[in-house]
Design goal:
Blueprint: H1 5-8, E1 13-15, H2 18-24, H3 48-60, H4 63-76, H5 98-104, H6 115-119, H7 127-136, H8 143-146, H9 153-167, H10 172-183, E2 193-195, H11 196-210, H12 219-228, H13 234-248, H14 260-265
Antiparallel strand pairs: 1-2
Helix pairs in contact: 3-7, 4-7, 4-11, 7-10, 9-10, 10-11
């Protein structure tokens, strides 16, 4: 059972506005360049729940969407692997806390940055919870799911995910946190608040889909993440999904982002990797 659901599942409130959120980050005026990290330094959670949902996502999502989900996990990640925490000589086997780790990353030689780890180290949510969100945030876009409901894909996907997680005995607060973030992962705007989990998935998805705020992770890390989880024409794939949903459901939540499909197709940052 969670010792603190608010922190474990990312329920703390953050500014919905990207500009306000980015202004608040701890490194906005760094005195030295931010230390980098490699894909290999970010560990995938291996809990029973994470394994079950990963298997489910692999079965249900097309490859392009599954790879996008994994890129969103790596871009937004908050916690390095235990191996990366062995900062001192291997013979000492001394591990550091996350805060100590960020203070000693200069001793490593990796290649990029992860949004939460480097820019919002005080943000709190478990890696498992964030992985569940990433794997499920586009579950509503599958052909089966998009055609079986009048609901916008984010809302239908949230309901599916909530039921799925509870069926695998996830804590209610965790299932609700994932559902809330799925509903709001395209709820971009300048007013109000959003959960910590929702804020990070927004930053990571808009980076992968539109190339916005790529400086948060750096070109080298993008190349490494794309090398591990290739885009395979993701821009055209997702733009097609957006157009299909709007054609089926002219009321869909996707219509609130003007020129959404064109924005995805015009992603110049990621075009070389598509």
């Amino acid at each position: 059972m969670s010792s603190n659901p608010t922190k474990d599942y990312g329920w703390e409130a953050q500014p919905r506005s990207f500009s306000k959120l980015l202004t608040s980050r701890s490194d906005k005026k760094p005195s030295t360049p931010l230390p980098p990290i490699k894909v290999a330094d970010i560990k995938l959670p291996d809990t029973p729940l994470a394994k079950e949902v990963t298997s489910y996502a692999r079965r249900e999502l097309r490859e392009e969407t599954f790879n996008h989900s994994m890129r969103v996990y790596y871009y937004g990640n908050t916690q390095p692997s235990v191996k990366s925490l062995l900062i001192l000589a291997p013979s000492t086997y001394k591990t550091f806390s996350l805060k100590q780790f960020t203070n000693h990353l200069h001793l490593l030689k990796p290649t990029g940055q992860a949004i939460a780890l480097h820019h919002f180290p005080n943000f709190s949510f478990t890696p498992e919870t964030y992985l569940l969100l990433c794997l499920l945030h586009d579950i509503g876009t599958t052909q089966k799911n998009i055609s079986s409901t009048h609901l916008s894909f984010e809302f239908h996907g949230a309901l599916i995910s909530h039921s799925l997680l509870l069926s695998h005995s996830a804590p209610i607060a965790q299932a609700e946190a994932v559902a809330e973030a799925i509903i709001r992962h395209q709820d971009l705007g300048d007013s109000g608040m959003i959960t910590t989990l929702g804020a990070i998935v927004q930053l990571a998805t808009i980076l992968d889909n539109a190339g916005e705020n790529v400086e948060l992770v750096g070109k080298e890390f993008v190349e490494e993440v794309v090398g591990a989880w290739p885009r395979k024409g993701w821009a055209a794939c997702f733009a097609g999904t957006v157009r299909e949903e709007i054609e089926r459901k002219p009321w869909a939540n996707s219509t609130r982002i003007d020129g959404f499909a064109e924005m995805v197709e015009g992603n110049e940052v990621m075009r070389p990797y598509d």
